[in-house]
Design goal:
162 residues
């Protein structure tokens, strides 16, 4: 009989619970997530040139993403607090979209993964970009926030299909 996956954050009666990771080995775990903010070419030019009314959009988004990753356990109720060893935010303007692609890499040595930290970093960086240029373009779209890859832990390596 095939193994049926189960939701680890649900108890026997269906109640929400924080997973006990105390018996799990501390291993190096890395997660990479990405998302996009789509905007007009004119808005993208403002962002790239640093001429947005609120200042350095990409720099502020990078810092916001880093701060969000460190606070993930405060935002997502059943996440464990983690001592992150790395969080890097890369933001690449892409005239073909037009818009920007935000990529976050999170790393920890511990008993649980960092997927939520990478995803939270991307989401908040994208929201920060939106906030900083919404006066120019309210119709921007945040899209495609997803896990790209993760490594470490019992479940091993995952890589998203392109």
């Amino acid at each position: 009989m095939a193994h049926k996956p189960k939701l680890t954050h649900l108890g026997k009666s269906g109640e929400a619970r924080m997973v006990d990771v105390s018996a799990k080995a501390a291993t190096e775990r890395v997660a990479v997530a990405e998302g996009r903010v789509l905007m007009t070419a004119a808005t993208l030019d403002l962002v790239v040139q640093g001429n947005a009314k609120k200042g350095d959009v990409l720099g502020a988004a990078r810092i916001a993403g880093i701060m969000a990753a460190k606070k993930t356990h405060e935002l997502i109720p059943l996440c464990h607090p983690l001592a992150l060893s790395k969080i890097a935010i890369d933001i690449a303007p892409d005239p073909a979209l037009p818009g920007v692609t935000v990529r976050a890499t999170a790393k920890v040595t511990g008993p649980t993964g960092v997927e939520m930290e990478a995803l939270t970093a991307v989401a908040v960086a994208c929201l920060t970009i939106y906030d900083m240029v919404k006066a120019v373009e309210r119709g921007m779209r945040i899209e495609g926030i997803r896990l790209i890859e993760k490594s470490g832990g019992k479940s091993g390596r995952y890589r998203a299909k392109e």
